[in-house]
Structure formats: structure tokens, C-alpha cells
Specification:
alpha/beta, Rossmann fold, 6-stranded parallel β-sheet, 22 helices, about 25% strand, elongated
Length: about 675
């Protein structure tokens, strides 16, 4: 563990210290006030020294810290403090390193007045009328009160420190003139203050992007208010935040800076101005800072704004950055487009950006904009949970039942291990109930709740034991099914697998040929028209596990059998539709495949309806009666199907009579396949 000594007083200093602590380094940080200590994170690796020190006292402290570098992260206007730190480094034989704050560019705007000193600022203000909002802090507030002729015009924004409030009172400012708030301040908040206090002039130092200068300028411009900006008194050399963090985290040697001089004792300073927007799509991992990658923490430390759903933004609140709550791609893209002054933008996503994330949609929107896009991966819940269970995840089927519908049953049947994002406890109970109802109570369920947080829970049991599962927070599940090794991957269930009753059923061999002719895809949308017992519907559903099958049937007894067979076979992606085709098809989504086993005399109307919904739908028709064959042949003369296939299927099955096996012929069936194929 390395040690660092940082003299802070800015958000950059605090961010630098906290970032180093998070990655496991020991940091001593010096702050001048009780408030400066109060806003720091609590960590055993972070030692806070509070109080104002002179050069001699600083040197004594430096001698107690095992580091060769001392980092000056004080405010760019704290000239006296920087002078003392530099002198102390010379006394203690330490190397002085300056952390720079980026300067703002002089705005080409008549409403912005640049001056070189506080005195020149008050000279300008004394020639004007109207209320003044001072955003320069409390250190030099007494000089403003002394030099502005009418102090009733002054509204001072200071940190919420009791000592500072008392000092303002002693200067003669009334309570209504003292605004105690901690930044950063958004454009919206600045604008609200300006309007509420009827401000005509806003005064600021050149605090740069991290000091909130762009937000002040934008708010003032929108409110028609003039801004007085006090330029920095000297040109400093040093490291920008990104460069310094990169060097510290990679343990590179640092250049010593000469305080107050434009010349370095080594190479030139590495301060680089941003000239365009960089949008970082960031996977934050499980949600706690210690589970974020170093690169992710660095991106947040450098961000001008952090965007994301409330849970993600709150997880990153310790970085002290302005934020925007949103998870909608269009809304985020619009915000980025409307805020060109923000050059470093982080959009935070839970877990990893490539695992059921909103990254894909946002990336498409950003690629249409003139921004640079970076993608930083995070630790996904599947990787984290697998490590907790001490198992591999390479052989897991990965799905999500959080905010989407996926065929969990099919996944569990065909895979020994299935991982799913489950949402909240209610979703876990629903999953377990579905497993029990579909004869899968033998599987083992692992539930992870509030992963990586202090409240983390891991619960293990079978589905029946977890029917009453309760837990606060988001959950994931892993389901182990040792019987998945025997899962049949081809169609061809025996006729005995279905309850038949008096409803018609497509027999096993004809069913196998018909399904083969359908040429199903994994995500197919299938209509089974005249479904009967559902033998075709169910086998299609078992094959197209990521799709959905609609079994259309008009007879009540057949509908009852359909429901029983669906439950017996544990098929989740089969929807039973009561009604007569083609009317029953009106509200259904467009099919990719259709099987017609019974048309009730409406063959022409059914085919017209299918083609209207999808001109390239693949249709397979089973005909037993010659009249049906004739009707289909008439339709073929009128329609132009580029793919036509007609097969006459005759099947004989053996039947045992005593010691003999007799072949018994079944009714011949015509299997007709039609599709308009577009190359």
C-alpha cells in the first residue's frame, strides 16, 4: 500500500483522494475547515488533517508521511496556500506536484465581463444597479462588502458552515442575503436562484468546468443576466486530473512542478483542453464502488455530468458530480446534444454494458451525433454470482425475466444450468410457481439478492421451498437441472404423449414430416389453425423456444384438451386462441410460419389473411379430403408462390395380433408447402 499526501480545497482534490482510497491506497488529506472534512467519505485508509497550516507546520506534517510527492489540489485562487505548500516541500525535501483545474475559455458574449482582480470587479459593479449574486466563496467576501457601495444588493452563496454564516452576519449581511449550499450547481438550480432573487449581475471566478462555470454562464444567459468573471492571476503548470490519476494508478514517476512558474523542471505540463464531447457508456458493476473497475472510477472522477437511472446515479453520488436521471436513449441523446459545454459525459448502466443493457439502443442514437463514444465494461451479475456459488458460467444459458418475457421453462429443460435476471422477490416466486406447475419441482434454485451490498443474501432450495421467498431488492437466479442431459432436441413425440379424447390429431409420422416442411426458426411466430389436441402446436413450441405459437381452435372439447396437453408437457410459449379462422387471427401478430390442419371450409380466406399479414409467410397444409386438395390447387392457380411442394404421405403402423405383427394403413395425407420467397 502506497501513501499520498494531498492538500485539498476543491472537488478535484476530494475526488483524487477518494479515488486513490477506493483502489486501496493510503491517503492523508489536508482541509482547512470543518465543512471540508464533513464532505469527505469515511474510510480507514483516509486520514483527514483539518485546520489552516503555515509552511513550517506543513513541512512537519510532510515529514510524517512516507511519500516523496506532495500534491497541491487547492483552489487556483488560493495563491497563498500554494506558496506555503511549495515552500514546505522545499523544507521537507518533497517533490511538489500541482493538480490543475481546467480554465474556462473567454466567452465571446457582450453579457460576460472579464476583469483581472476583485477590485476591478467591484469597480464595474459600483457603476451598475440591481441585485448581485456572489458565487466566489466566503474567503474574500469581506472585501466585496467593503468595496461595494450598497451592500443591500449583495446575495452571497457560501458553503453551509456555521462559522462562515456568523462572519457574514458580522459583515452586515442579513439572513436573506446568505445562501448556504454545497455544489455542484446545475443550470436549472442557478437559473432558479437568479429568478428568485431578481439577480442582475452574477460574479464568479474562472473556476472552469469542474467548478461549475459553464452552468453559471448558461443560466445567466437564459435569464438575461450579466456575468462578471475574475481571471486567474497567474499561469500554472501541472497535471490535469486524468493525467495525474493515470500516472498514480500505473505507478509512473511524476514530474516536479515549479510553483508560480510556467516552466517545469522536466517535460512540459500535461494539461489538455477538451475540444469536443466524449460520451462514456459505463457498466458500473453490481452497484458498489469497490466492484467498479479502476477505469470506471477514473471516468466518473473526470465526468462533467453522470446520467442514468436513479439507482445507478445514486450509486455514484460519492463522486460529487452533477447528474441527470434518465434511462431512455432518445432523452439522453437530446440532453447531450443540448449541453455542448459538458465535454466529459458518463452514462451509467447496471452490471455490464453488454448484458441486457440499454447500451445498444443508446449507441445507435449516439452514432448519429458528432460525439466521441467510449464503452467501458463492468462486472455483470452472472459473473459475480457464479463466483459466489463457486461454479463456472461458461455453460450457463443466459436469459432475463426482468422487464421482458423469455421462455424460462424451455431453457431449464434443455440446459443443466440457467441464469436469469429475475427482478424482485415476486418474480422469483412466479418462476418457482411456474416450475412446480410444469413438473419441474426436482430442479435446484439458487437466488442471489442485493448482490455486492451489505444486505446481500444467497438462498438455495427447490421450487416448492421457495414459493414464499421474500427479500428486498433486485434478485438473480441460477437453476440447475441434472435431467437436461436427456432432453430430446428433435421433434417426433409419440402419439401417446398427448391426451386425445374425441378431438382430431395429426399422427406422429405425418406430424414429423409437416413440422420439417415448416422449417421453423428459433424465434418463429407460428399459427396452428384447427389445432385439435395441439400435437402440432406443442411440438412447434418445443422447437421454436424463443418464439411463440398460437393454437387456434373453435371446439370447446378440443380447447380443453389443448390446455391439458400444454400443462402436461410444460410448454410456456403456447397461446391458446378460441375462435374460427380467419376472424380469430385479426388481433394476432404477423406469423412467420402457419400450419393449416383444419379450415372449416375457409381455406381461401385463411390463406388471404396469412398473406396479408406477412407476404412471405411459410404455409404448410394437411389435406385428407380430395375436395380440400382441389380447393388448394385452385388457389395455387390464382396465387404466385415461388416455392410449392406437394407430398402424398401414406403411413402403415404395425399392430400385434397374437404372435403376429400386422401393418395397418392410415389415411393418406397430402402435405402441401407454400411460400413466396424473396431473394
Amino acid at each position: 500500500m502506497r501513501e499520498f499526501l494531498i492538500f485539498a480545497g476543491t472537488i478535484e482534490g476530494r475526488t483524487l483522494a477518494e479515488t486513490l482510497v477506493v483502489v486501496g491506497e493510503k491517503v492523508h488529506i489536508c482541509v482547512a475547515t470543518e465543512y471540508g472534512e464533513e464532505v469527505l467519505m469515511t474510510n480507514p485508509c483516509l486520514t483527514v488533517h483539518r485546520g489552516r497550516l503555515d509552511a513550517t507546520q506543513m513541512a512537519e506534517l510532510m515529514g510524517q508521511v512516507n511519500t516523496k510527492y506532495v500534491i497541491d489540489a487547492t483552489h487556483p485562487y488560493a495563491v497563498e496556500a500554494s506558496d506555503n505548500i511549495f515552500k514546505a516541500c522545499q523544507m521537507a525535501d518533497k517533490k511538489y506536484v500541482r493538480l490543475l483545474r481546467e480554465e474556462g475559455d473567454d466567452a465571446e458574449d457582450e453579457a460576460v465581463i472579464y476583469v483581472d482582480s476583485l477590485t476591478k470587479a467591484t469597480d464595474v459593479l459600483n457603476q451598475t444597479e440591481g441585485n448581485i449574486l456572489l458565487t466566489t466563496g466566503s474567503k474574500e467576501l469581506a472585501k466585496y462588502v467593503d468595496q461595494i457601495s450598497d451592500i443591500t444588493r449583495i446575495y452571497a452563496r457560501i458553503l453551509p458552515d456555521g462559522v462562515m454564516v456568523d462572519a457574514c452576519r458580522k459583515m452586515g449581511l442579513l439572513g436573506k442575503q446568505i445562501i448556504c449550499m454545497q455544489g455542484p450547481f446545475s443550470v436549472e438550480l442557478n437559473r432558479a436562484m437568479i429568478k428568485q432573487l431578481n439577480i442582475k449581475y452574477l460574479v464568479s471566478k474562472d473556476t472552469g468546468v469542474s467548478g461549475g462555470l459553464p452552468e453559471k454562464l448558461q443560466a445567466a444567459k437564459e435569464c438575461g443576466v450579466k456575468t462578471v468573471i475574475i481571471r486567474r492571476q497567474k499561469k500554472e503548470t501541472g497535471y490535469a486530473m486524468e493525467d495525474l490519476l493515470n500516472k498514480l494508478l500505473s505507478n509512473e514517476a511524476l514530474e516536479e512542478h515549479v510553483e508560480g512558474n510556467d516552466v517545469l523542471s522536466g517535460a512540459e505540463g500535461s494539461k489538455v483542453k477538451n475540444c469536443h464531447q466524449v460520451v462514456t457508456l459505463l457498466g458500473i458493476g453490481m452497484g458498489t464502488l469497490q466492484d467498479m473497475t479502476i477505469e470506471a472510477r477514473l471516468a466518473c472522477a473526470q465526468a462533467d455530468v453522470i446520467i442514468g437511472a436513479p439507482r445507478m446515479v445514486e450509486a455514484l453520488r460519492e463522486f460529487g458530480k452533477p447528474s441527470m436521471y434518465s434511462y431512455k436513449a432518445e432523452e439522453i441523446a437530446e440532453y447531450i446534444s443540448n449541453h455542448p459545454e459538458q465535454s466529459q459525459i458518463v452514462v451509467a448502466f447496471s452490471g455490464d454494458i453488454g448484458f441486457y443493457s440499454g447500451t445498444k439502443k443508446l449507441l445507435e442514437a449516439l452514432q448519429k451525433m458528432t460525439v466521441e463514444v467510449r464503452l467501458l465494461c463492468g462486472i455483470s451479475s452472472v459473473v459475480y454470482f457464479a463466483s459466489k456459488l463457486q461454479t463456472s458460467w461458461e455453460d450457463m444459458k443466459l436469459i432475463s425475466n426482468h422487464g421482458r418475457v423469455q421462455n424460462l421453462l424451455a431453457a431449464v429443460k434443455s440446459h443443466k444450468k440457467v441464469f436469469s435476471l429475475a427482478g424482485y422477490a415476486e418474480s422469483v416466486r412466479t418462476i418457482c410457481q411456474e416450475l412446480v406447475e410444469n413438473h419441474m419441482a426436482h430442479v435446484k434454485v439458487f437466488v442471489g439478492c442485493q448482490l455486492s451490498y451489505p444486505e446481500e443474501q444467497i438462498v438455495i432450495g427447490n421450487p416448492k421451498e421457495l414459493l414464499a421467498f421474500a427479500c428486498e431488492g433486485l434478485c438473480v437466479v441460477v437453476i440447475e437441472n441434472p435431467q437436461a442431459a436427456d432432453y430430446v432436441v428433435t421433434h417426433g413425440l409419440p402419439d401417446e404423449a398427448f391426451e386425445r379424447g374425441n378431438a382430431p390429431m395429426t399422427k406422429e409420422e405425418v406430424r414429423s414430416i409437416s413440422i420439417s416442411k415448416l422449417a421453423l426458426t428459433q424465434g418463429a411466430v407460428v399459427y396452428d389453425i384447427g389445432a385439435g389436441t395441439g400435437s402440432i402446436s406443442l411440438e412447434c413450441a418445443l422447437q421454436a423456444v424463443d418464439g411463440v405459437v398460437y393454437a387456434i381452435e373453435k371446439k370447446a372439447d378440443a380447447l380443453e384438451l389443448l390446455a391439458k396437453n400444454k400443462k402436461n408437457l410444460g410448454v410456456a410459449n403456447l397461446e391458446i386462441v378460441a375462435g374460427l379462422a380467419p376472424e380469430a387471427l385479426d388481433t394476432l401478430p404477423a406469423p412467420t410460419h402457419a400450419f393449416v390442419g383444419g379450415s372449416s371450409g375457409n381455406m381461401r380466406e385463411i390463406i388471404d389473411c396469412l398473406l396479408q399479414k406477412n407476404p412471405q409467410v411459410r404455409i404448410v397444409i394437411n389435406c385428407i379430403a380430395l375436395e380440400t386438395v382441389a380447393e388448394v390447387m385452385d388457389i395455387l392457380k390464382e396465387k404466385s408462390f415461388s416455392h410449392q411442394d406437394i407430398a402424398a404421405v401414406s403411413v402403415a403402423k404395425s399392430k400385434t395380433l397374437g404372435s403376429y405383427h400386422m401393418m395397418m394403413g392410415q389415411n393418406p395425407v397430402y402435405v402441401i408447402t407454400l411460400q413466396e420467397v424473396v431473394s
